[in-house]
Amino acid sequence: MTNKNFVFTILFLCSFLLAYPQGVASTPEYIKELTSNWIGPRFDDGRPKVSDALLKRLKGIQMEEAWGYLRGHGFHNQYEGNWQIIHPDSVMTGRVVTAQYMPLRPDFKQLIKIKGAQENRDTIGGSNSWPIEILQPSDIYVADGYGRVIDGTLIGSNLGNAIYANSQNGVIFDGGVRDLKGLRDIKGFNGWIRGDDPSFIKEQMLTSINAPIRIGRAIVLPGDVVLANRYGTIFIPSHLVAKLVLASEVVGLRDQFGFQRLREKTYTPGQIDTKWTDAIKADFRNWLNQYPDSKLPMTRKELNDYMDTQN
């Protein structure tokens, strides 16, 4: 390579790095690429803004229904279970803000601190506060702490209060927390965690915000929507939420119909628990027509339009 070509190559690489700087947080452009199937409003950071109305409806969906819908659409790696839950009887839904943590490496930690300062983040305290500072109402802070609990406590009650103040929601951590009693005392806050320990976070560092992460056996993207209950957590691509909710609500109505007819002994278990005959399908449609609009989880038009597309 000639000196002229060498200089040209160096200048090209420098201009490329300046044009595409790598920071702690993903750029809005990258998040939009990750979630390109979403059509609708977005936050300033690029994450899809799934409506609060859909988040509320999602709370009524059974885990198996959501899981089955995603599997049917080719998303086989969106569920994770085996959690310690702060308030097991509560259901939590929300939009994902992701964070990734790794074992501490001094040179990388210094770079993260420099990048954080360039992004106008608070470099006086710990970097584990950075994801909390950007939370919006109805967000859920989801962190890959690689399962570490001892010396891997990502928050205590102080940060827990800050999380709830910003999001009115909780956390899902593949990692640990400290001051569990204090976290339990925060009204409305909840958490799906791997465990708790009195130790402070140590030899662990934040490496990215709003990048793809792994939570157990699930892959999670920023802007995904979470359904979390006592039976586990499921991470739903934003562009599938509306269709998943409606389809799952219809499955719920279908189950109500089947249970009622079984109690009435109109059909046998074998007839209900297999592919329905045309007569049962017609009976179900008639049952739906008599179902009170005020008790439907969706609008009557949404239900009718959906049923018109089904066999």
TrEMBL record:
SUPFAM superfamilies: RraA-like (SSF89562). Substrate binds at residues 156-159, 178. Mg(2+) binds at residue 179. Keywords: Magnesium, Metal-binding, Signal. Its cofactor is Mg(2+). Residues 1-19 form the signal peptide. This is RraA family protein. It comes from Ulvibacterium marinum.
